[in-house]
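Hi all, long-time lurker, first post. I run a small reading group and we've been trying to get comfortable going from sequence to structure in the token notation. Rather than ask abstract questions, I figured I'd post a concrete chain and ask someone more experienced to write out its structure so we can walk through it together at our next meeting. Sequence below, copied exactly:
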Amino acid sequence: MSLCYLAMGAVDICSMKGLKCWDVAAGILIIREAGGIVLNLEGGQYKDIMNANITATCTEKLAENFFKLINEKF
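-- Answer (accepted) --
Happy to help. Here is the structure in token form:
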């Protein structure tokens, strides 16, 4: 449901860990059709549906900024 909220614009970013492929398969399709982006938890290309750990954002720029902030060392 969180992925559908992202696709409709109610939220800007979702990061999920520990899910199964059936938890995210339809949501990933909906996000991509809506123009969003789905990445793995490290910010790389999401390729393996059997590893359903994802970060989804509404824009590529938001994904870049999110991972830049996460990887920043204080």
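A couple of things your group might point at:
Residues 7 and 30 are 6 Å apart (CA to CA).
The mean pLDDT is 92.
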